[in-house]
Amino acid sequence: MNIIRGTPLFIQILIIYFGLPSISKLDPSPLVAGLIALSINSAAYLGESVRGGINALSLGQWESAKVLGYKRHQIFIYIIYPQVLRNILPSLTNEFITLIKESSILMVVGVPELTKVSRDIVARELNPMEMYTITAGLYLLMTSAFAYIARFAERKKKYDS
């Protein structure tokens, strides 16, 4: 995990796209290589969030559930998971918003995402200010919508507990 969190996502994308074919018979398309890199990168950060959320709970939670006769998977599903989710929802939201914005880096391997399409339009139309302002607005719209949904989920989780 430290290797992933300690290296730039840009380099990770390049290693998967160009490096994977040189060390294996796999030759991922730009989209697949990008999705693999984004997934691995996000998993490293999400894993730390989940670990922190679990460690924040007292050991008494597990012990009390065991005394009541719950099995290990029941303890996790019915007692630990709901509390962890409530605790880590803000960091999950942050990671997914970051993921939306980091998707723009995929243009380096030719994935036709929003920033690449904008750049292609700028190359044809020669209107960079307008196009990049629209692009920024679209990213802002996507991340704001996601943040709004996440805030709604946070309020619901607080109300449910």
From TrEMBL:
Family annotation (NCBIfam families): HEQRo_perm_3TM
Localization (cell): Cell inner membrane; Cell membrane
Organism superkingdom: Bacteria
Family: Belongs to the binding-protein-dependent transport system permease family. HisMQ subfamily.
CDD domains per record: TM_PBP2
Tagged with keyword Transmembrane helix: yes
Parts of the chain that traverse the membrane: 131-150
Signal peptide residues on this chain, from the entry's feature table: none
InterPro entries recorded: AA_ABC_transptr_permease_3TM (IPR010065), ArtM/GltK/GlnP/TcyL/YhdX-like (IPR043429), MetI-like (IPR000515), MetI-like_sf (IPR035906)
Function: Part of the binding-protein-dependent transport system for glutamine; probably responsible for the translocation of the substrate across the membrane.
Gene Ontology molecular functions: transmembrane transporter activity
Originating organism: Chlamydia ibidis
Mode of membrane association: Multi-pass membrane protein
Classification via SUPFAM superfamilies: MetI-like (SSF161098)
Keywords per UniProt: Amino-acid transport, Cell membrane, Membrane, Transmembrane, Transmembrane helix, Transport
An annotated GO cellular component: ATP-binding cassette (ABC) transporter complex
UniProt keyword Cell membrane, yes or no: yes
Ranges for domain ABC transmembrane type-1: 1-150
Name of this chain's protein: Amino ABC transporter, permease, 3-TM region, His/Glu/Gln/Arg/opine family domain protein
Gene Ontology biological-process annotations: amino acid transport
